[in-house]
Amino acid sequence: MIAATRACSPDGPNEDAVRHDQCRAVVVDGAGVAERYRAGCSHTVAWFANALADALFEAMDDRSLALRECLRAAITTVADQHRDTCRLDQGSPSATVAAFRVDDQQVELLVLSDASVVVAESSGTRVVTDDAVAVMLDSYDPLVEDLTRDDWIEARRCADGGWWCAQHRPEAAEHALVEWLPTPEVNALLAVSDGVSRLWEHLGATPFEALGAADDPEWLLDELRAAETASEAGLRAREVRKLHDDASLVLWRARR
Fold first, then answer.
1. What sign does the dihedral 53-58-63-68 (CA atoms) show?
2. Residue 101 — pLDDT band, cuts 50, 70, 90?
3. Domains by residue range for the chain, with CATH
4. What pTM value is reported for the model?
5. Pick from 55, 43, 45, 54: which is nearest to 87 by CA?
6. d(Cα 180, Cα 186) in Å, to the nearest integer?
7. 48 and 97 in contact (C-beta within 8 Å)?
């Protein structure tokens, strides 16, 4: 496998975390929300992202556990690490997740929230992601709602009728998208944080083009940064809040 991760700025923390070996891949994208939304926790977003990536990667080594079970176990493990020192129900760090696991017979993949896995099959290339937040935002009307946009989103985080990500509630794993595919039918997999998926969501590339460029991941991230800078006005027009975001990817290609 091939992987790369890059912080949104050279002097800032990277709130993404990546783990991989020859058969497992994990991309965790820590949510860069305002501190008031995680006021009950003393830990940083980067700490949470790395702790969750470690716990999920370890759980995925147990082939008897499906990926939703692995994620449930990982969320519980991390919550237990700071349950006694933090007031998790008063706000704590959270993250989105993309993961996959491959053996000779089966590919298993998981996506929680707006991280993504690009799947290349003989029938074509497609993206597995959960656009629940984007869909939900279509119904937000600042003239009607009493809450600001950010407060409105936060009120619906990990809540029934809202949207789900990895935080401290293990039942979030049940809301993850999962797929099982025959390995011989899969040519490549690309797990990315939303800092990379903006290539096709906002910057005019296609998932197929990103997948083709991912064999040189550092070059791809260079191109991403250049495209963001060149498209600053367009990103602002689309209400994309960050010119740059932490960006991470893991690529697997079939050897045949």
1. negative
2. very high
3. 2-253 (3.60.40.10)
4. 0.92
5. 43
6. 11
7. no
